[in-house]
Amino acid sequence: MADLEITKVTANIGARVSGVDISRSLDDATVAALREALNTHKTLLFDDVNLDDAGQQAFARHFGDITGAHPTVPAVDGAPNVLPVDSEGGRAANNWHTDVTFVLNPPQASTLRSITIPPYGGETLIANAAAAYRDLPEPLRRLTDTLWAEHTNDYDYAVPEEAIDETEAARRARFTSIKYRTVHPVVRVHPLTGERGLFIGGFAQRIVGLSKGESRKVLDLLQAYVTRPENLVRWRWSPNQLVLFDNRITQHYAVDNYDGLPRRLHRVTVAGDIPVGVDGKESYAIEGDASHYTTVAA
Fold first, then answer.
1. Which of 41, 91, 97, 113 is the catalytic position?
2. Is 70 a catalytic residue?
């Protein structure tokens, strides 16, 4: 704990962590300091982590129970809580999203660990959704506080709609093998900090009470605030790194700029709570049971 150093990498999001070996069990003071840093910076970056799948899971468990790998997508062989984020077969997640928001209680935090890194490109962008909310003009902020959005996995950020070959069609069928529809507040109140953040992203497909076309215009307008360059950190991967981000108040995007070369990360996520809006109301599920994937965090 005494050697822990937190160094900001941008004004609005991201900090590099040094002075701690996350391959070992962490004491309560260190975990509390990392949690506080995560609350402040939204994204923490660790170098030279020397973790395998088991170690990554052990680190994630310091922040709560971990989820299954994914509600519908297969896990790494022999590691049911680890999701391979692999470029093979067109699985670059080059669309802005927050992880698994189509379920009632999306993960509170996500860890990504570098396994195979291309010689160029393949960065991960992460955006601060609280800064985006603060950027909204006051009249738009007041409107947004009242809005709710339906999130669904019947829209796949990893497999484009226009994909027509058999392999991609099979991937999409697997991704939507259980259909989920959940309504979340567009402005989510963070349970630890009380901050308000825009809780939208690629799985948010319709604003409750608006048509599909109207919804798209509103969501695109709000999303433009999330992805302002000032609200982003662009992480260029190196071997043996781990990124921890607060999934409750960020979005992320995998940049597909590496010419189809091999790129593989492993993801482990921490079970989250049910989102709460400005009015104190909780999200609610319309379709799909995710109890096989995640518990609800206390």
1. 97
2. no
Helix (H) or strand (E) holding 171: helix 166-175
97 is a catalytic site residue: yes
Residue ranges in the chain whose pLDDT is less than 50:
89, 156-159
Record the pTM: 0.94
pLDDT given at position 162:
56
Alpha helices in 227-265 (DSSP H): none
pLDDT at 19: 97
Cα distances (angstroms) measured from residue 184 to each of 86, 117, 253, 273: 29, 35, 21, 12
Query: Given this model, what pLDDT does residue 120 score?
Result: 97
Query: Choosing from 252, 263, 266, 273, which is the catalytic residue?
Result: 252
The answer to whether 99 is a known catalytic residue is yes
Nearest residue to 102 via CA among 176, 190, 194, 174: 176
C-alpha span between 269 and 290 (Å, rounded): 14
Residue 223 three-state SS: helix
Radius of gyration for the chain, computed over Cα atoms and rounded to the nearest angstrom? 18
Give the Å distances, CA to CA, from 46 to 43, 122, 220: 10, 17, 32
What whole-number distance in Å separates Cα of residue 158 and Cα of residue 53? Answer: 23
Catalytic residue among 41, 99, 113, 184: 99
**Contacts within 8 Å (CB) and 24+ apart, 34-38:** 34/4, 34/62, 34/244, 35/63, 35/192, 37/6, 38/109, 38/244, 38/245, 38/246
